[in-house]
Structure formats: C-alpha cells, structure tokens
Amino acid sequence: MEANTRSTGRLPAAFLTPGSSSFMDFLSEHQPEMLPGKRQLPPTQGVIEAPHGTTIVAVSFPGGVVLAGDRRATMGNVIAQRDIEKVFPADEYSAVGIAGTAGLAVEMVKLFQLELEHFEKVEGAQLSLEGKANRLSTMIRSNLGMAMQGLAVVPLFAGYDVDREKGRIFSYDVTGGRSEEKGYAATGSGSVFARSAMKKLFRDGLNESEATTLVVQALYDAADDDSATGGPDVARRIYPIVTVITEDGFRRLTEDEASGIARSVLERRLEQPDGPRAALL
After folding, report:
1. What is the pLDDT of residues 175-193, one digit of tens each?
2. Catalytic residue list contains 175
3. What is the distance between the alpha carbons of residues 254 and 241, in angstroms, rounded to a whole number?
4. For residues 212-250, b (16+ Cβ closer than 10 Å) or e, as one string?
5. Domain 50-271 CATH superfamily
6. Which of the residues 44, 54, 138, 243 is marked catalytic?
7. What is the Cα Rg of the chain in Å?
C-alpha cells in the first residue's frame, strides 16, 4: 500500500480497486499490522499498568439520549489524569463513551469514527444506528487478545435513531457482546453505583434538562463510592463531560452549562449528602 516513489503521480492500486465499504476490511487486506488487534505484544507477567478511564453513563428521554462521563483516569492506586476526555462524537447522530485502557480506547474511537466516515463516502449514505452498534462490536471483539492481557476496552454507545425517531443505548462486554439497554446504562469501575442511582431516579417522560441532571447525580454517586471515579472538581474547574444527541444531532454541553448543573447538584448535596430520595412506594 506504499506510494510509488518513482512517481507516476498515481495512487497505489489498493486505493483504486473496488472493495468493501468497511475501512477495517480495507486495512485487514492491505496493511493488517496497523489494526490494534493485529499487533503482537511482548510476553508479560501479571497485569500491565496503564491509565484507565472509568465511569460512563447514559440516559434516554423522549426525543434523544444523554451520554456523560467523569474526568478521572487512574493507574493502579494513582490518579493518572484529572481531566481526561472520555466521551466523543462518533458521527452526527451518535457518540461513544470509553471505559478501560485509555490509550487503546481513544485509538479505537478514532478508528470507529473513520470507519463510519469511510462507509458514508463509499456508499453515499449513513449506516443505521443498529449497523453502527454492530461495527463497534466487531472492533471490540478484535481487541480480545489484548483484553486477555489486561488491556480491555469496554465502551458505551448511544445515538439518535433517525428511523425510529428515538434515542438508543448499547452496552458491550470485552468479547464484543452487545446489548441494547432500556432507559439508562453505565459502564466502568463506578458503574454499579451509578446504575443504582439511575435505577432509583429514572422515570419515563424525563425532559432533556432532567436527563442531564440525572447523569450528573449518577456520576456524583459513583465518585462517592468508587475511588477511580472523579467527582466535580470546583477548585480546578473540572466538570463531567455531558453530551446530548437528538434529531438536531450531537451537542456537547458548554463548560458553563456543565458547571451550572454540577454546582446545583453540589449545593443540594450540602443539605442531602446522599442525594435525592426516591419514594418508597
């Protein structure tokens, strides 16, 4: 796939031959060593210490879906980074939140973005949301060898389904197994606590404002019980990344919007440290 340096000015034949609309298939055929799952790792003993991203949460509401993440990355018992980016747009109507080995996760997201863009250029149409979720499942499965060595990537995928006119959420395991979640979902080390918070606070008919507040509440509860999840850091002005996907497309809340929600939650927590109460019956 290398260019001809003796130069006719033409692209290599690989770029001019009709083939699959999948960029991953193209790489697999012409330069497989560039795919993360095809790399050969040196023999190791024990778990490899690398920065890990932690908690990602998602909540659907009539008209769309909210995807959010905290900002902390850890390496063992050390905070590796306080302001890591964990939520990325996949395309105009979908987004990915990463949990697991941070470096590999970011690389996988970039490859996924390229996969969707390549498909759209070749086919002249966007993949369905279901198709995007399936493509991501394949990419995660290809990373299984690294996951078995402790370098796992377990994202959360969410988007607005233009055909069904609603927001949808998909979760994964390390083998690439895919599940569609109803209403809310969480992944990462603080997911147990975040999911428990959302289970008590979620209800049908939430509006966008309520959904964005709910995910911040859930991330706060995760940070309260999970040391790898970072809560709002007012001193450093570091707040959760909160994104909204509707029929108008992907939108990331501005720093002022995210900080406003986080500060409101913090103020209420001064009165109720354990957060809002759900009705018993």
Report:
1. 889 999 999 999 999 999 9
2. no
3. 9
4. bbbbbbbbbbbbbebebbbbbeeeeebbbbbbbbbeeeb
5. Aminohydrolase, N-terminal nucleophile (Ntn) domain (3.60.20.10)
6. 54
7. 20
